[in-house]
Each structure stands twice: as C-alpha cells, then as structure tokens.
C-alpha cells in the first residue's frame, strides 16, 4: 500500500510539473518576448536530471544580468545552458546588441543570412529593438546598412546611424521602421537632401527624438510647406548648415516639442537664432529644456535675451561666448520677481579665448537675492571658465551654499514635485 501511495505521489507530481511547464510557456509567449518561431539550435539535448525552474524566475534572472557591465557575454552564456534558457535569454541578447570590434560580422550573418528576404528568413531580426552603429567606422558599407535596416524594421525602436556607411540608399529601408522612437543621425557625414529625410519621417508616428546630422543642409533648401514633423516629437537636435527658413522660424517647429538643442551651426547668425526663439515663444511651444552652443558667427551679446524670450524654461545650457551679465539683469529683461521658472543652469565654453570673466558666481548670487531666479537650484559650469581658481573659489562656494539654502527654503514652503526632487541642489564644475 505504501508503494502505491508513493507511486501515486510521483505520478501526481509529474503531472503537476507538466502542467506548470505548459502554463509557464503560455504566459511567456503572451509577453512581448515571444520566441515561438525562433528555431532552437540542434546541439541542445534534453536532460531528464536537470533542475527545472519556472520561466518567470529565469526571466527575472536574465533581466538582472542584462543590466551588468559587458552583459553580452553573460547573456550568450545563458543561451548555452538549455533549451529553456535559450528561449528566454535570446530576446535579451538581441534586443540591444553590442557591435564593437569583431562582433559585427557574426551579427550580420545571423540577421542577414541571405540577400533575398524570401530565400532565407531571419527570425532573430524581429528581436532587435535598439541598433547602435555609432561606433562602427569601416566594418559596414552602404549596402550592408540598408540590408540590415530592412531586416530589423519590424520592431526597431532606436537607431543610431554610422558615420560613413549611411547614405541615400538607406532611406527606403529606414522609412519602413514605423515603430521607431529615436533616430540619431548626428554622426552621418553625407545626408544628401534634407527633403528626402523629411519625406522619410512622415511614416514614423511614434518618433520622440530626432537628431539631425552636422552635414545637413549644405547646398540644399527646404520648402516650409513640405516639412511635416512626426506628431509625437519631443526632443529635437538642430545642427548643420540649415537655411534661413529654419533659423528665422519660417519652418515651424512641432507644438509637442519639450527639449531643443541648437549647436554646431557654422552659418547661423545671432539675429536668425533670436528670431527662431521668438517664434518658439509666439507659437506657444512648451519648451522646458534648451541648449545653445558652438555657433561661431554669433557675437558676444547675441543671446542675452534668451531668458526674457523663454521665461518658462526649466533647464538651460548656454555658452558664455554669446552672453554677458545682462543675461540675468533685471533691468535688461524687465521681468517681475517669479517670472522665471529656471531650475538648472549650465554654462559652457565653445572654445573662444577671453570669455572667462563675462559671467561670475557673484552675478548669479545677486540675481537670486533679487528674486530674478527664485526657483534656481543647480548651476553647472565648464572647468575652462576657471570658477574654481583661487581668485573665484570663495565666490563659487558661496554660490553653492546659496543654492542649497534656497532649495531648503523652497521645499519648506511648498511640497516639491518628483521632478524637482530629482534635481540635486548646488554648484558643480564640468570637465
């Protein structure tokens, strides 16, 4: 009788194990990491003595491992353990592949086994969500980049284009990446026509971030009526030799824009940049972050009225090459106390000599005492400005104390939001 009970117990536990495995597999396949159509390598053999773990536990383990440094080697080792580990770990392995060094060629062979899509499919291509080719120099070519984009187009969400191997023939494949959320073309040396780029953007309804290349706009002009921005665009990086239509506000920026970076514009003049900022203010663009730097044709006072034009900015990064102490002067800006919403200020240097004394820590302290910038909590300055030198070190420390004191006072008066709490009060020196 005891043997029968033990036999019944073993049979019952075996049935329960099969049931748990079946339910676990079904739940995993319903997730975004479905790998049902991915062939498992033939060298995996089932081992009856291996310890079984539910898919959910392995999923938690692999999700933790992918966050470690150089996780690609670890994830690859996980795919070699068993069929179950392979099925769960391979989506993490291909989600954001590291293509540096000698890893690019094996990746291409796995994703593009054949030139013709109908000859040999590549199920692993559907797993790629982030494709960063920014560190590739000569490993790829125009043809390979276009083929690779054509393979991973189904679920690709982020793409960083390579410097040399992205060209005109890549645009048709890029236009099919309809789930793209971030497009970084900042490294591309030959973008071709800007109009081709904007025609490509029409098919990307989920795009949130766009970085134009420094080569954009050279020898080309864009018709304002033909520029259609993605409907959800929030972060925009303008660079290159953009024509006057862009810089003078003729080409309207998207109304959804929250972050704008304007840098590396060799032909931009101060009047054009100011006109663009004025248009942003008049159009009611809800801009919260603005960065301005590396525009050699601007004068040393071109951007003094930036805060007056955009008082609702919360974070501003600006080069001191284009501002003076009037930048935070109450008389110049004609602003009432509390008008500025600025919380974080970053002062950089575009490389011009003799700009170290244009703005000092004392100027910012005076502006805080006059309540011109009552919400300011953080100031970051480039090391090249010399605010930590013996002559101004005490003023810099006084600014740090003033910022921390103001933050404590603000938090005591009004309960800060979660976004404000993430801003660490004080003054820092940037490299």
Offer a quick outline of the entry.
The chain is an alpha/beta fold and 431 residues long. The protein has 15 helices and 11 strands.
Structural account:
The protein is an alpha/beta fold and about 425 residues long. Among the domains are: about 55 residues, no CATH class; about 120 residues, no CATH class. It is built from 15 helices and eleven strands. Strands 1-2-3-4-5-6-7-8-9-10-11 form an eleven-stranded parallel beta sheet, with helices on one face. The protein is globular, with a radius of gyration of 28 Å. The chain starts with a helix and ends with a strand. About 0% of the residues have low confidence.
Features:
431 residues; alpha/beta; 11% strand
Helix content: 25-40%
Low-confidence stretches: 29-34
In what range is the share of β-strand residues?
5-15%
Spatial sequence of strands, sheet with the most strands: 1-2-3-4-5-6-7-8-9-10-11
Global structural class: alpha/beta
Mean pLDDT figure: 82
Q: What is the element layout, followed by pairings?
A:
Elements: H1 2-30, H2 55-65, H3 71-79, H4 83-95, H5 104-111, E1 130-132, H6 142-152, E2 158-160, H7 171-175, E3 182-184, H8 194-201, E4 209-211, E5 235-238, H9 244-247, E6 259-263, H10 270-283, E7 289-293, H11 306-309, E8 315-319, H12 330-333, E9 344-348, H13 361-369, E10 378-382, H14 393-413, H15 418-421, E11 426-430
Parallel strand pairs: 1-2, 2-3, 3-4, 4-5, 5-6, 6-7, 7-8, 8-9, 9-10, 10-11
Helix pairs in contact: 2-4, 3-4, 13-14
